[in-house]
């Protein structure tokens, strides 16, 4: 019997329909940050959040940036002071024809594994960030206040490289100071296994255009003598990996460390279902670097992935063209001490060294990158949260690696000197960044309850 | 003094403005055959042509097909009976932003090398086919009739693989019977050098989708273990050629013959300006098969070209996606006795043998292909035309090879038992299939005069 927590949990259960209705309203705003066409929708999503924080009794405001606005809010008193981070922007929705519904007209769907909330952002990250806001709402409704101090910090550029984030943090160190950052943007290692992410991969993004002929050419008049940028870009991409799946860019593995045996043993018993993970993506085997387990490939090995590739004619029928240009978008996931700037330079040098005569390469000017991050799991809040999560999910919570990148965790350390704790309730099959994104209704409900338990656990004593 | 021809030539000179106005009107019809959105425009172009033939006094009609209609017409009497072929459809216009003007609002432009007609189809093939129609118009205006019999045969699917052509020819052998076919859809070997094309490359088209994951994946959650179709399609494309530019598909070179030394010597003196040809396309060297001259690479060597390649995210910004699919459009130019069906089977086997586990390939179902063609230059009409062209251009006319494919020449032989003579007035820098297509006003004018001379020359005796 916990007289402070139990009524909050009961209130959360009783208020679930209203909490769901609020999330649905939030999901209807198409806040795609990477596409300028949705700029006003991003602002609208920020305003919605701001209003919702005010409805809790928080001070809250929109903070303009050269890009999409930040939302900042504060409520509660006493120790600890927690800085909660989430993002209100979402991924683009293409290919739109693969969605069963309008991505921004969210619906509840009954599925064999339980009811899901279907729509863009349901999991990444609107549903996740609302688990925390709703936990706060229930605490305040029940107790009139929170057991600690919360600063809310929401950005709207997470899915587009967070160009405004570092300048904003540097200019607002005081308003962002706290004892610990909480981030809700991660998955559970396996359905129903509560997870605290203890290490994240970093990321760098790059993009180039390979130009050959001075204009599109006719493949009859010029086929043979002409340099074909599509063929050349394919050769370049094929040159990025060797036959074992290892990246061939010189210096790429500098700073990459092997996973210690004890950590590997812990990971192997954390409930990760490899066959299920692969089957979910339609695969029977793991296609990464040979000599590493699927979990290591996902959590502890760096990647160089092509995310977009295009050139020439894509319409119906045939066009006998040798195009003047070909284009390629790349992201690298980084681990250990890999330096994003060095990797970018090495990647560019790799391409430039392989350019044929008459070809030239033009690089994108956006240079964002973030190194990998390892959390400080020795802090007492981690054990308190682990216990709280175990209680809620009736399953031992685990410290897990993560394949994704959450650059903000690194910035909290380097800019604010702040440790981060990452707790999320998403499932690997939530189809985030894909058509038909979903978030389990149970994940939403138990996510809210989990945060209530964590607030209780870290605010004791 | 040629009392039959000279007044026709004078009339052509005097009527040039009107002939140009007619072409401009024709060019305004956006008859893009490969894109279903332009279906009615294709019919409109056919109707325009039909009406224009009737204005000469020809019998003319639209002949429906499952695709775009054929236009057939007849006028004149006596020997020889010539079958004139051209096509009223044009290439797509993308990328539209690289056009200086609306592609279907043709303009006259004064350029350092002379006035040009700028617009889609100006050269390929509306401008070219109108040279012949205008020559006939001048003959008829001057003499009340033609010196021989002409059957006009215009199709509207040349730029989209001519799916209706063979069935139509097979069903209309009688209406298409003649002594010789004339085709006006080719270039001059160099500006001002009148050319009769004596050999054409064949072509086959293919297209495939490479599928990997069962849906688009997040490059954080799945980057590493996931099969990336963009990387796999790049490896496949890179595998099509070896380091010397030779196609590696097994059996690809079956039926390819080396060019005889005497023919090579003739080509080398035909006025082809290699440096100019390369510079026009922004190249300093020839990128084709090592060991062959630029002319051989263009006229006498087969190719395997990628005309379109796409997958993943192409919009602004970044999307950390591993896409489910990648796509590729291919054409091969064929020479000698290469068999399109065999090459297609070999290409597909090459791809299928290299598919990784968990990947699958889906091929396009359109199976059109045509072998290379060699003209019967021993026929007396060839020497008569060569002399007529030399007279008009004040430059010895040449028998040249050609890199492009005009499948109709092969069909005339196999279906109608008819030899073809290909005479065209396009320049290599006409940017056909590219933005800002053009046709020299002089080429149009002298093209009309050339056909008048050829009609005179082949109708004597």
Automatic annotation (TrEMBL), chains A, B:
Entry keyword annotation includes Thylakoid: no
Taxonomic superkingdom: Bacteria
InterPro entries reported in the protein's UniProt record: Cyt/Met_Dipeptidase (IPR051458), Peptidase_M20 (IPR002933), Peptidase_M20_dimer (IPR011650)
One protein family per Pfam: Peptidase_M20
GO molecular function: metal ion binding; peptidase activity
Keyword line: Hydrolase, Metal-binding, Protease
Domain spans labelled Peptidase M20 dimerisation: 216-357
SUPFAM superfamilies associated with the record: Zn-dependent exopeptidases
A GO biological-process term: proteolysis
PANTHER family: BETA-ALA-HIS DIPEPTIDASE, SUCCINYL-DIAMINOPIMELATE DESUCCINYLASE
Protein name: Peptidase M20 dimerisation domain-containing protein
